Amino acid sequence: MAGPVQSIERAAAILRLLAQGSGRLSLGEVAASLGLAKGTAHGILRTLQSVDFVEQDKATGKYQLGAALLHLGTSYLDINELRSRSTNWTDALAARSGEAVRLGVPLEGKVLIVHHVFRPDDTFQTLDVGSLLPLHASALGKILLAYGATPVEPLMETELESYTRHTLDSPQRLSRALAEIRDTGWAFAAQEMMMGEADIAAPIRGQGGLVVGAVGISGAVDRLCDSKGRPHGSLVGLTRDAARAISRDLGAARW
Question: Closest Cα to residue 196, out of 218, 217, 214, 177?
Fold first, then answer.
């Protein structure tokens, strides 16, 4: 059996080092801490930087963990702990609301569905786990944007895809919607991605209060909304209660 690969061991040691303390170290500090030649440490740091696992501050020249590596860590939490801790609450939400429940996390400018509970009836339904939803045209996505779980700037700099006549396809409309979500604590999308369909979502927070995902219900507009197209308050309340319960299980303080 082949032995360990030295360069990978050294790269892992550098990442662990950057994860400790202040998280910002110079080349000399990295090399000295690990007993490496500066040239060796620099080569590994350059490689890690090329795949966005490490970033270098232009002003100080110091290194820190990169966004891609931090995203991998968040993804592990989202897909494993988030899903396992949410199961009881999502099952209960589906039973109480009578609608399908989905759990979403950010992934490369989309919403990745990591858990899906079918609507509790005998109608034909398709499992959505693994599917990707647009951030700007779904309640789950708008929650992630509103609370900074995924950056909003890239969307504001490109032309937003219009799926129906109800899609928020301009930066101005989307910005107003996100501000309202932050004020109310929940999101709603009616026929923005598909005619006849609506969804309601609320944020899931991890330790420290950061939003790590969103939970929501989805179904026909005539079931989720009243005659004026507004979501039923009872469904909004059930969704927010489920989000709070999952958040508490993840270690978030009450808010």
Answer: 218
